[in-house]
Amino acid sequence: xxxxxxxxxxTAIKYGLVSDxxxxxxxxxxxxxxxxxxxxxAQGVLSFLSEKMAEYKGRYxxxxxxxxxxxxFNRGYIVYGTDNxxxxxDTDMRGIFEEKFGVPVAVDNDVNCAGLGEAHxxxxxxxxxxxxxxxxxxVGGAIYLNGDIFRGDKSAAGEFGHIMTHAGGKxxxxxxxxxxEAYASCRAxxxxxxxxxxxxxxxxxxxxxxxxxxxxxxxxxDEWEDEIVYGLISLSYIFNPPLIILGGGxxxxxxxxxxxxxxxxxxxxxxxxxxxxEQARLRNKAGMLGAAYIAKQRLDSLx
Length: 303
Ligand SMILES: [Zn+2]
Prior knowledge:
Strand order of the largest sheet: 3-2-1-4-7
Helix content: 25-40%
Radius of gyration: 19 Å
Strand content: 15-25%
Mean pLDDT: 93
Order of helices and strands: EEEHEEEHEHEEEHHHHHEHEH
Shape: globular
Number of domains: 2
Largest sheet: 5 strands, mixed
Distance between the termini: 14 Å
CATH class of the largest domain: Alpha Beta
Bound molecules: zinc ion
């Protein structure tokens, strides 16, 4: 038995086959938007998925899809897409593909899938309660509770990027002001540093040893870490989690994870200081493995 998985992000769609032992058998990647004008739109993404499902036909028993945006997990329905994939909102993804390919299809948002991946195969293995946050263009969150994702009333729980840390502050993509991700996302850091130097600097470049000595970068990084920690302090007081997993490419920087851990633990009350702060382990495989996990769950539930 195998599962066909897709991990739809703002810049790339990863896809491949995963075994029922959750081993990645094959993996490829394609840009979400390229020279083909149709791609990058909802229609373009759906036809790309459809093409691959047809290409792999006969080699899978279920399909798992991890996607950016807000997903109603119970219906496998895209409630709200992202700016990167225009027109993705209100798409009955599960309905469309189950009807067309005749196998169970499961859909969830990318951070929930990453959280599930980490829960079963990564930094959360063995824990039945943790928070997972990803820092990239925005900030995503997942609440893993009693051995499953806690999804809330409309499958929208854990949108930590939009808790308000600066009332009346900077504009956020969600249309409100002062959200956590406007200050704590990787983009908030790269925007600030790039503006100062008059050219784009990626997170990876900022963390080069020679750049870490630069006084402006030092200051910007220190303040950015504080912004990250402000949000984590509030989350610690709400959830009192035993474990916080930090994901997103930038969090592979050991120095950063260490600073966040030290700052968080020194700034919360004694009941919250036992929290373990760990880097995500699965990196870019988390989404695909999480997608495989929900697909297997759906397959089993229909048996
Ligand atoms: Zn927001």
